[in-house]
Design goal:
Blueprint lengths: L5 E3 L10 E8 L14 E3 L21 E2 L2 E2 H10 L3 E4 L23 E3 L5 E3 L5 H11 L2 E6 L6 H12 L5 H8 L10 E4 L12 H13 L10 E4 L7 H10 L6 E8 L14 H11 L2 H15 L6 E9 L18 H16 L4 E7 L9 E4 L2 E4 L1 H9 L6 E2 L2 E4 L2 E3 L5 E3 L1 E7 L5 E7 L5 E7 L9 E6 L18 E4 L1 E4 L2 E6 L3 E7 L5
Parallel strand pairs: 1-25, 2-23, 3-6, 3-14, 6-9, 9-10, 10-11, 11-12, 12-13, 13-14
Antiparallel strand pairs: 2-18, 4-5, 7-8, 15-16, 17-21, 19-20, 21-22, 22-28, 23-27, 24-25, 24-28, 26-27
Helix pairs in contact: 3-4, 5-6, 6-8, 7-9, 9-10
């Protein structure tokens, strides 16, 4: 049963010197574009307990399940309206051989997950289990195929096995394994991080490999592949330049990976951090804006019509593993700080949705910036989950340009961030949603939104905040951080005014006048 709470902000209770001010101007006449729903994509790698224990417990488990999938996790993910799910990796993808994950589960060979903790996996979750999960969730599958240690024939056969309707040996093998009708598989990643764990390749070598492998990944029946090439990490524009020159329109999308990480050798605690650490984290996560701009500039030179999409198919926070957990399983907690990283990153993706057509946060369950955490038969929703749930209203809507004027905060590494960030969209029913974040830890902010001719009925809102920025949900306290109904809005004379408490995230819904 959901807990419904109303949060009323009383301006009289706020000392004058503890309040910031911000002004937002909606710009309805400016150029706009669609925020593709795939920007709200997710990522499930064979890593730690993301798959086994997180998504999959098997049909014989005492944990309530549907065909082996955890019921609690299924319900939570359905509520997010997940548009696309990437699998099986990550680094794991380039050591995964798909034939070992089909057929009777009890006969499938075991394998060692050499990338992530040396875990021995039984391959009980394979192609059928993943694609059937996508159908249960109503989302598009994104297959990350093995280029690093696999063969051209292996990748080509996998595509045919999944998507061919023909009376052919591979399609008939699929039928023998219980699936008559081919699956719809649009997104195909040709390798993963080929500059690193996927083969330590030079961009010139990978470009040639991509051209070779992608050639044999065919369209069968009415299935049409959207082929995604391995792109750069962070600011490696040389990789992008080589790919645009040597591959060009042979790829439909180019991936880019970006993690909010302090130091790869000492990442810091997920739950114990200072105010300076928090502001540094926000400055770092917002650098994804510069990453996208730098690679988009390279792509624009030869692809000004943006026919090749940029896919941020790995992103999120990366902290030290929680004490007492398995090394290499990347289990970390998730605080309000992570919620702000999610909110600000999604806002950046909206701004670049004319080029960025997909993003996949890492990862879905129990790994890195997870949506859900599980322990035996228990499950909790993380603060990042709540941001995705509050922001899902922007999926597929038209981006509404806006301008934000707010005070600046200078981080310890001299990055400049704003106290308030915002994004807005209008869906096909004419309903506008505005999402805002007051990142300031100790000051509320009075926000004035100039609607500039946009007419609406009385708005409604929800807010996500907590007493401390280090707050998180755990199995003993699953509702410490959760969204509640937000009151405290004033409207009139073409403006909307609200007071946002310190460290808060708000989403407003504005119904069009006359509806």
């Amino acid at each position: 049963m959901k807990r419904i709470t109303t949060l009323v902000v009383l301006l009289a209770c706020l000392p004058m010197d503890a309040q910031e001010k911000a002004v937002i101007d909606l710009l309805p006449q400016k150029e706009t574009w669609r925020i593709e729903k795939e920007i709200y994509g997710h990522f499930a790698e064979h890593l730690g307990t993301c798959i086994y224990g997180g998504l999959w417990v098997g049909p014989d488990s005492h944990i309530p399940n549907t065909q082996g999938y955890r019921n609690d996790v299924l319900d939570a993910l359905k509520n997010l309206q997940i548009p696309v799910l990437r699998w099986p990796g990550g680094c794991f993808a380039d050591e995964y051989h798909w034939r070992e994950g089909i057929g009777p589960r009890q006969l499938r060979p075991k394998m060692i997950n050499t990338h992530w903790g040396g875990t021995v996996e039984d391959n009980s979750f394979g192609t059928h289990e993943f694609l059937n999960l996508c159908e249960l969730l109503g989302c598009e599958p994104y297959i990350s195929a093995n280029l690093g240690s696999g063969t051209v024939e292996e990748m080509a056969d996998w595509v045919e096995y999944m998507t061919s309707p023909a009376d052919s040996p591979l399609a008939n093998l699929r039928r023998e394994n219980g699936r008559d009708k081919p699956w719809k598989v649009t997104y195909l990643g040709v390798g993963n991080e080929s500059w690193g764990c996927g083969g330590n390749m030079r961009p010139e070598f990978y470009a040639d490999q991509y051209r070779r492998y992608a050639t044999y990944c065919r369209n069968f029946g009415d299935n049409r592949l959207f082929k995604i090439a391995v792109g750069p990490s962070d600011f490696d524009v040389n990789w992008t330049e080589v790919m645009m020159k040597n591959v060009g329109r042979r790829m439909d999308g180019l991936s880019v990976h970006f993690y909010t990480v302090y130091n790869w050798n000492a990442k810091g605690s997920a739950t114990k951090f200072t105010s300076d650490d928090y502001y540094w984290t926000l400055g770092k996560c917002l650098d994804i804006d510069n990453v996208i701009k730098s690679h988009s500039a390279v792509m624009d030179r030869t692809d000004p019509d943006k026919r090749i999409s940029l896919m941020v198919d790995e992103w999120g926070t990366w902290w030290d593993e929680e004490p007492g957990t398995v090394r290499g399983h990347l289990y970390q907690q998730n605080t309000m700080r992570d919620a702000f990283v999610a909110a600000l990153s999604l806002m950046v993706f909206h701004q670049h949705a004319d080029r960025v057509k997909m993003a996949n946060i890492a990862q879905l369950a129990n790994v890195l910036q997870a949506m859900v955490l599980t322990k035996d038969d228990k499950m909790i929703l993380t603060p990042s989950y709540h941001v995705f749930e509050m922001f899902k209203v922007h999926q597929g809507a038209a981006f509404m340009p806006l301008n934000v004027k707010a005070s600046d905060i200078v981080t310890r590494d001299k990055r400049v961030i704003q106290t308030v960030y915002a994004t807005a969209s209008v869906n096909e029913k004419g309903i506008m949603h505005i999402s805002l974040a007051n990142v300031c830890l100790d000051k509320s902010c009075e926000v004035t939104i100039n609607l500039n001719g946009v007419h609406f009925k009385e708005p409604a809102g929800r807010i996500l905040t907590s007493a401390q920025i280090t707050d998180y949900n755990d199995f003993d306290h699953p509702h410490t951080v959760m969204p509640v109904v937000y009151s405290g809005l004033k409207s009139g004379n073409g403006t909307l005014t609200l007071t946002m408490p310190a460290k808060s995230i708000v989403t407003l819904e504005l119904l069009p006048a006359g509806k």
